[in-house]
Amino acid sequence: MLRTTVDLEAIAHNVAYMKDVVAPARLMCVVKADAYGHGMERVAPVMDTAGADAFGVATLGEAVALRDVIPNTPIAAWLWNPKEDLTPALDAGIQIGIPSLEHARALIATGRQAEVFVMVETGMHRSGVDKQQWEEAFALLRDAPTLTVLGLMSHFACADEPAHPHNDHQEAEFREALTCARGVGLECPVNHMANSPAALTRPSARFDQVRVGVALYGLEPVAGRDHGLKPAMTWESSVVAVKPISEGESTSYGLTWTADSDRQLATVAVGYADGLPRAFQGALKVGLGGELYPQVGRVCMDQIVVDLGANERGVKAGDHAVIFGEGGMSATELAEATGTINYEIVCRPTGRTERFYREGDNNAK
Fold first, then answer.
1. Could you give the residue numbers annotated as active site?
2. Residue 126 is assigned to a ligand binding site
3. What is the Cα–Cα distance from 41 to 314, expressed in whole angstroms?
4. Which domains does the chain carry?
5. What InterPro entries has UniProt attached to this entry (predicted)?
6. Which of 12, 62, 65, 122 has the CB geometry, 3.0–4.6 Å to 170, for a possible disulfide?
7. What's the pLDDT tens digit per position in 207-233?
C-alpha cells in the first residue's frame, strides 16, 4: 500500500550529466545513508555503469556492504572512531578518511596497508585536521610505510549559497593545505572538496575529484536554479476511505481543523510511523488524479486526512495518493513548505514503506 518507486533511468541520466559537467575531474558518487534513501544495493551498480569513478559513504560499515555489490571501483569512507575495528574495511580495500592525528595514529598502529585521504579543516568546524596540526599530520602520514596518501579532502559549509563569501575563504584554505602537504613531501594526486552545489556552480573548486550526492538523485542543490536533473523517487500510498464531513465538524486528533462547508475527506495510509512527521500538518498537499489536495488535521501514526472539497474528480478508495514525486509535490517543494531541505525529504520514507524500482516500463521490488 505504501511504497517508494525509484527511477533507475533517472539515476543513470543524472550520473552521466554530472560526469560531463565536472570533466576532467573524477566523479565520486556518494551513496551514504542507503543512497539517500534510494537503496544502495540497487542504485550503486547503475551509477557504476553510468560512469562513476569512485564511491563515497560515511561509515566503514556502509563501505564494507557496498564492496559486496561494487567489487572493483574505489570506495572511500570517512566517519569512524579511533577505537573502531578497522579490519573489515581494510580487508575490503576501503580508502579511509583521516580527520585527526588520533585517527592517523590509530590507523598506523594496525600495521595494515591502506590508501587514505587527509581531511583538513577549512572553516566548517565539524571534522578535519586543524590548521595548526596540518604539518605534523602530513609528516606523520608521509613517514608511515604502510599508508598511501591519495590526497586531501574537505567540505563546504555554504556551497548551496554560491555567492557566500565563506566559500572563497574555504577554497583558499584548502589550497593552502595542499601547498603545505606538498611542501612536506606528499604528492596528493586526488584532492576533493566540491559537493553537489559546488560541483555545479564553482568550477575552481572541482580540483581532481568531486563528491556528488544529492544531485545524482535528481534533487536541485541550489535554491532557485534548475540544472536539468531528473528526480528519481516517488513516495505514494493509497486512499483507504472517502467520507463526508459537514460544515462545523472537525477531523483527526485534537480536532485542529474544522470544515467551513459541507465537503468530503479522504483517508490516506501514511503516518509518522512511516516517516511523515507530525509537524508537517497543513504543509503537505497530496497528489490525487493529477490534482493537489491539502492534508488537514493532525498527522497520525498510520494515516492522514486530505480535504477533497466537493470531490468533483470522484476520488475513491483504492486510488493512488502521491506524497511527493511524480504526480504530487516535488521533494523540493515539500521541503520548502516544511522548512527543511530536499535531502531530508527523500530520507524520510521508512516504516512500512516498500521500495520498488523502475527501469523503462518495468517495476520490480
1. 32, 253
2. yes
3. 40
4. 7-217 (3.20.20.10), 233-358 (2.40.37.10)
5. Ala_racemase, Ala_racemase/Decarboxylase_C, Ala_racemase_C, Ala_racemase_N, Ala_racemase_pyridoxalP-BS, PLP-binding_barrel
6. 122
7. 999 999 999 999 999 999 999 999 999
